[in-house]
Amino acid sequence: MVGVTVFHPDFPSSHPLGGAIIECGSGVSFRFPPELLSISTPFADAAHLSALSQANEDRGSTSEERIILPNVPFQGFHMLLTAIHPITPYHTASTKISIMATKTVEMILEAYYTAEVLDIPYPTFSRLLIPCFPDPFVEFALSTAISPAYGSDEDQNLIQETVVGTFNLEYNSMSRFADILLIELNPHYHVRLRRLLRARRGITSSLISAMRTEPTPDGLDDFSKKCQKSPCPAIGSVQKKSWTQLRARAATFVWEAFKEERGQPGERCKIADGVLEETCMGCSRCFERLSAAIGKAINDMEAKLPTKV
Using one digit for the tens of pLDDT, what is the confidence trace for 45-83? Predict the structure, then answer.
């Protein structure tokens, strides 16, 4: 007697993409085109899946292509298919994110086991999963899963790419989910990330003071003589025509902008200039002097920031 095929609801028998029936552990099947596996994950092509497949005569004959992967956990395989599924009206980017949001750490660990069974290097698999988890700490955690059989420069490059997303975040803001995932995937990098972010925070905390005190190019700690002699909207915006007050206000506004926009390395000066143009009330002379001084303070600070996790 032919058993009933149990399809995963996200990849049912009538799935729009069609394809073969791929049956995983626990007897859960997926309708999916094997050729899409080879496009997204060259190490898991259709021929490779067929080689791993274990036919079962008790299931009866069928004209449909059936690939049986009893050693592949269905939860992990579901994450793989979700990640590589093309963006379509049926399966949008937001759909992928919402599906992945229901996954537990244990399911993600199963997904990496799935990658190992299918001979997909962890960096390749991580790059598929990362877009589905829009949290910098989760992205970093996923990148730290280093393949036992493929430890290489690719692993390290991916780790360094993702750690940049955490640079302007507080270590203590990491979600419990990301925290546990990082510990499970690579506890070594859990310690290193904490050390890196704390070191960066210590250096960054001195920036607002530096922005208030870095000398202007002309060395004057006052409004320029031209601004003092001719109408300057910036002078009129502060009490007692105080340059110190204007500069302190500008530094505070820039600091607040950094906290809101989380400027990445190389972007902070651009963010600062946008704030300074407004703070200087359209005065080009005040803007140029503050931009040069505050820009130097920013660049000096960024040069000191550690980036290697």
Answer: 556 666 666 654 444 445 678 888 888 999 999 999 999
Q: Are 295 and 272 in contact (CB under 8 A)?
A: yes
Task: Quickly list DSSP for the chain.
Answer: -PPPPEE-TTS-TT-TT--EEEE-GGGEEEEE-HHHHHHH-GGG-HHHHHHH----GGG---SS-EEE-TTS-HHHHHHHHHHHS---SSS-HHHHHHHHTT--HHHHHHHHHHHHHTT--HHHHHHHHGGG---HHHHHHHHT---TTT-SHHHHHHHHHHHGGGTTS-GGG--HHHHHHHHHH-HHHHHHHHHHHHHHHHHHTTHHHHHHHSPPTT--SS--HHHHHS--TTGGGSGGG-HHHHHHHHHHHHHHHHHHH-PPTTTHHHHHHHHHHHHTTT-HHHHHHHHHHHHHHHHHHHHH-----
Per-residue pLDDT tens over the stretch 232-279: 999 989 988 899 999 999 999 999 998 777 656 678 999 999 999 999
Global confidence as pTM: 0.81
